[in-house]
Amino acid sequence: MANKEPIQTSDAPAAIGPYSQAIKTAPLFSYLARYHSILNSWNWLVLESKNKLNKYLKT
């Protein structure tokens, strides 16, 4: 099939108004949220490692 667009039926009407906007921006938002959580995890891992290293060096 050349046309990849989903066929609109009365059961699945086209998104209207703010919902349409939300649907368009959702993938970007989830990508940014995932990126943010990866950054936070990375920061937490680095801080944990530093703390453990400092404790180890002090003993």
Structure overview:
The protein has 59 residues and is mainly α. It has one helix and no strands. The chain starts with 17 loop residues before the first helix and ends with a helix. The model has no long low-confidence stretch (mean pLDDT 72).
List its traits.
59 residues; 0% strand; 1 helix; mainly alpha
Distinct helical segment count: 1
- Number-wise, the strands total 0
Task: Indicate the percent of residues in helices.
Answer: 55-70%
Radius of gyration: 23 Å
Describe what is shown at a glance.
This protein is mainly α.
Topology:
Blueprint: H1 18-58
